[in-house]
Amino acid sequence: MGHVRRRVRMLARGLALSGLLTLPLAMAAAAQAPGPPAAGRDPLTGPRSRLPRDWQGARVVPTDVPILVMAGHADSQGVAGPGTAGEAVDRYGARAMQPGIRDELYWNLQVAQRVVSLGRQRGLNIRFYDPPLRRIADDDDPRTNWSVGKRHAEAGGYALEIHFDAYGPDGVGSGVIPALHRPFSRIDESLAQAFGGYPMQFRGGLGGPRRGITLLEIGKLEAPLEPALRNPASREQALATISERVVTALEIGVGRPPAGFTAVSRQPDGGGSAPPERDPPASSGGG
Known about the structure:
The chain is an alpha/beta fold and 287 residues long. It has a domain at 56-253: Aminopeptidase (3-Layer(aba) Sandwich). The protein has 9 helices and 7 strands. The protein has helices spanning 2-18, 27-30, 87-92, 103-121, 145-154, 186-195, 207-210, 225-230, 235-253, and strands at residues 41-42, 46-47, 67-71, 126-129, 158-165, 175-177, 213-220. A 5-stranded mixed beta sheet has the order 4-3-5-7-6, sandwiched between helices. Strand 1 (41-42) and strand 2 form a beta hairpin. Helix 4 crosses helix 9 (235-253) and helix 6 (186-195) runs antiparallel to helix 9. The longest helix is centred in the middle third of the chain and has 19 residues, at 103-121. The radius of gyration is 18 Å and the shape is globular.
């Protein structure tokens, strides 16, 4: 019994150090935060990408552009690229949020569904796609996120896949990895202003962007973000804050900012708005 008690104490200490047993002090401020501060760290979503953003979104999109939102890794559980399990599970032995799926997918689904629900309430032409299976081995199966997103983008719509980044040194932080099929749009730019931006050829060009799907990394699945999501006392507030930030960015991107919104003048941190002439090499995906 002694070794069991020691293990429990070690687990509790690890959870406390990661913030999982306490409500983050910054949650109240984060609920009102419009986006990452200049210092590059948000009180809720943590560090944003510090990689050089070599693009800028200037292409105008219609206010009623069809927006497709998907949860990253929704079709790759149990195969290559299932997403991160998160720091709580991997480092501190916490239980997965839902048996059978990685924690990243659990939170991807939570955010994607809320974004679509809120977006519809605000008048956006937005919908959610969830694959019928959680494990589809063939990337080009017509039911995968990649296939559905590619068809949507080719038809002129905007495809967005929600992700959470890896914890620790393997992760980069929040930010947008833009689709590479056409000049970058004002939606891409608006999301990048709210969350940060990655280089357009991050990791040689990821599978989603090469198929016309923009990836949005909400943040690294570690403190302060992961504890805020896992703690029942702060979970709904954290999800609402993230969803509000995404939807507001989408509204600004389609040229219909919400009432009371005041634009903030920023120095552009990107390069040209056109994608590279050639598709970069294939990759396994983001998150």
